[in-house]
Design a protein that fits this description.
The chain has a domain at 45-123. Helices cover 52% and strands 10% of the residues. By secondary structure, it is mainly α. It contains 3 helices and 2 strands. A hairpin with a 2-residue loop joins strand 1 (74-79) and strand 2 (82-87).
Length: 124
């Protein structure tokens, strides 16, 4: 039994086998990238993404229903000169939706700004 330090390294002059990528032609199937279906049969797909999103949204809906059911007390909501009565859950959900809308608007404007800037740089 020999130790790793006693083992002889392979000489660089040994001929390469004909199955190495350097010796294959560009059109041979072994140099092409494997198709996605053969790459990993358990990889994520659009269907699995839709399924995960559906489950996630279903859980979110259940939590939302619980939130609304527990916050049915009526409160007075004032905005500028407007005043009205609404359940606490509804008032909070409207405020959340308004915040999401403002954030999405600001983000979309920034994305459009960056796209315009990128087009100018690539054309110029």
């Amino acid at each position: 039994m020999s130790t790793p330090s006693e083992q002889q390294p392979e000489s660089p002059s040994t001929p390469e086998s004909p199955t190495t990528p350097e010796s294959t032609t560009p059109d041979s199937p072994s140099t092409r990238e494997p198709s996605r279906s053969t790459e990993n049969p358990l990889r994520g797909s659009r269907t699995s993404g839709v399924w995960a999103a559906t489950v996630g949204l279903g859980l979110l809906l259940v939590l939302l229903i619980i939130f609304i059911a527990q916050n049915t007390d009526t409160t007075t909501v004032r905005f500028l000169s407007f005043e009205g009565e609404a359940p606490v859950a509804v008032a909070l959900l409207i405020a959340t939706a308004a915040g999401i809308l403002l954030t999405a608007t600001a983000g979309s404007l920034r994305i459009l700004q960056l796209r315009r800037r990128t087009r100018k740089v690539t054309r110029g």
